[in-house]
């Protein structure tokens, strides 16, 4: 049984219909007026308007949902509702907008701010409860208007609503800035990797670089181990997700020869190499075993293991290997 949290003093029990008009009508607008148009894909899952269009009112007045600056939109159809699509309508052209018929429109009354109403519609409880109350068939299920109108929530005073909205806005800005920094760092890393691993153009660098074959710094390891019945087996996950202990569902064959693998070795799957099935054996899996279908190699001390992995994951390397791959139904690295 979930714990019921106490409601702060001054907060009053309310339903959305007590604080907002649900799917209200908007006043008419001149045919030649420019308005904002929001198809579903112009409203993000993070609650922002992205890719709004400007159109003449005559082109969208019929067959679309109307709304105004300050309204809150909530996607009503699956999976958009579950994916948190919705927004607070700001900066609409001439304060008017039209959009997908799959939006519920919530127009705040005087006892709630648009920002707080928007926050309310993005809570896990609102979305989770709404999902449970959807009607319709699979693929066409929708959150009904009656659920939105009668959704219960505690309503703070206006001053507290503004404080809460300002605080969450500050957090959102901090998160957005952090995400931008991470993205910028990733892009910088990709650029540096591309510049360093592709043919160097900087003459100061080229004098330090050598063109070598991968085989010149890899030595295959074939330390005899046990068999399929007794071995502690190791495997490689797809898409660069690393080397792990194999979750054995059945006992292997006594006649299958296994080899002992050491931590720090490079290992790959012959069958799924081109699906990113390779990695460096971690320390805790040293001593585990694999067959020759998962060969392992000692890496020369002159080469960084991390650099070698980064080299392998480059699209340029994969493109070249596709032409060399062997195998009828699956690409196999020989």
Find the CATH topology of the largest domain. Answer: Adenine-n6-DNA-methyltransferase TaqI, Chain A, domain 2
CATH C-level category of the largest domain: Alpha Beta
Largest sheet: 4 strands, antiparallel
Cα distance, first to last residue?
Answer: 57 Å
Unreliable stretches covering 5 or more consecutive residues: 326-334
Structural class: alpha+beta
Classified in CATH, the superfamily of the largest domain is DNA methylase specificity domains
Strand content: 15-25%
Shape: elongated
Helical residue percent band: 25-40%
How many alpha or pi helices? 9
What is the CATH architecture term of the largest domain?
Alpha-Beta Complex
Please list the strands of the largest sheet in the order they lie side by side.
2-9-6-7
Number of beta-strand segments: 19
Listing every helix as H and every strand as E from the N terminus to the C terminus, the arrangement reads: EHEEEHEEEEEHHHEHHEEEEEEEEEHH
**How many structurally independent domains?**
2
How big is the Rg? 30 Å
């Amino acid at each position: 049984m979930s714990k019921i949290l106490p409601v702060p003093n001054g907060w009053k029990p309310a339903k959305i219909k007590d604080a907002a008009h649900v799917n209200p009508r908007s006043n008419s607008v001149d045919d030649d007026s420019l308005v904002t148009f929001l198809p579903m894909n112009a409203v993000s899952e993070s609650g922002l308007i992205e890719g709004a269009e400007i159109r003449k009112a005559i082109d969208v007045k019929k067959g679309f949902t109307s709304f105004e600056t300050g309204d809150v939109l909530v996607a009503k159809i699956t999976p958009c509702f579950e994916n948190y699509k919705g927004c607070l309508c700001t900066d609409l052209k001439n304060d008017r907008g039209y959009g997908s018929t799959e939006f519920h429109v919530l127009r705040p009354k005087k006892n709630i701010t648009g920002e707080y109403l928007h926050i309310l519609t993005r809570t896990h409880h609102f979305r989770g409860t709404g999902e449970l109350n959807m009607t319709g068939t699979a693929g066409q299920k929708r959150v009904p208007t009656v659920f939105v109108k009668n959704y219960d929530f505690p309503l703070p005073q206006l001053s507290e609503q503004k404080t809460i909205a300002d605080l969450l806005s500050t957090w959102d800005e901090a998160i957005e800035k952090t995400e931008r920094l991470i993205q910028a760092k990733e892009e910088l890393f990709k650029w540096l990797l591309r510049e360093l691993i592709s043919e160097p153009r900087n003459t100061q660098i080229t004098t330090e670089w050598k063109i070598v074959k991968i085989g010149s710094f890899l030595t295959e390891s074939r330390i005899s181990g046990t068999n399929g019945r007794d071995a502690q087996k190791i495997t490689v996950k797809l898409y660069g997700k690393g080397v792990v202990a194999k979750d054995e569902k059945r006992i292997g064959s006594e006649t299958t020869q296994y080899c002992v693998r050491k931590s720090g070795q490079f290992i790959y799957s012959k069958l799924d190499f081109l699906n990113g099935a390779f990695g460096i054996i971690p320390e805790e899996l040293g001593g585990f075993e694999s067959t020759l279908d998962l060969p392992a190699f000692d890496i020369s001390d002159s080469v960084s293991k991390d650099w070698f992995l980064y080299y392998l994951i480059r699209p340029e390397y994969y493109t070249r290997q596709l032409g060399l791959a062997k195998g009828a139904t699956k690409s196999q690295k020989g």
